[in-house]
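Comment thread on ticket #2218

A.B. wrote:
> Attaching the input chain for the structure job we discussed in standup.
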Amino acid sequence: MITDLPNLLTLSRIVAIPVLVALVAMNRPEASAAACLLFIAAAVTDWFDGHLARSRKLQSDLGRMLDPIADKLLVGASLMTLAGLGGLSQFGALWPAIVILCREILVSGLREYLAGTRASLPVTRLAKWKTGFQMTAIGFLLAGDSTGVLLHMPWLPVTLMGSLMLWIAAVLTLITGWDYLMAGLRHVERPAGASNGRSVG
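C.D. wrote:
> Ran it. Output below, let me know if you need it in another format.
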């Protein structure tokens, strides 16, 4: 049901998006710090809702549909807002952001196709590392150097650290994206009706 706690946590990530965008648009140190904290809280719900659904046996088709949508909306909105307001203008951070967004579209398309074949794409260990670097990088970039000043640590290169982690996430994105593409193509090339009875991974 939509009112189950895991689904409410998932929906909270979608609800947080306009608030996050508004905070970034204020372009003030306090607002940037708040945007970072809000993003971290939203990212934590991504782990927490899955854990609750499994532990309380509340897994549902609705949750499986909403979870990746909420994740991609949160990441996509954050990166696009940063790009539009100049938050990715340093250290070439715009380019890994483009790579990450393109990969998300690719994987979404593959999952949509494979849903019709009753196959699925695996969430690999490397993909989890990619997500970790990606979420941490976005959090740092949302905070920006102004947050370091706000915390009386003007020497802390917040934007540089975020940009470097975003580049690492982009490299991992290319690797995992290629793996997912190859896994998807194996199902495309499989003759109709030929199935080994298990999902990918």
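A.B. wrote:
> Thanks. Noting for the ticket: The chain has six helices and no strands.
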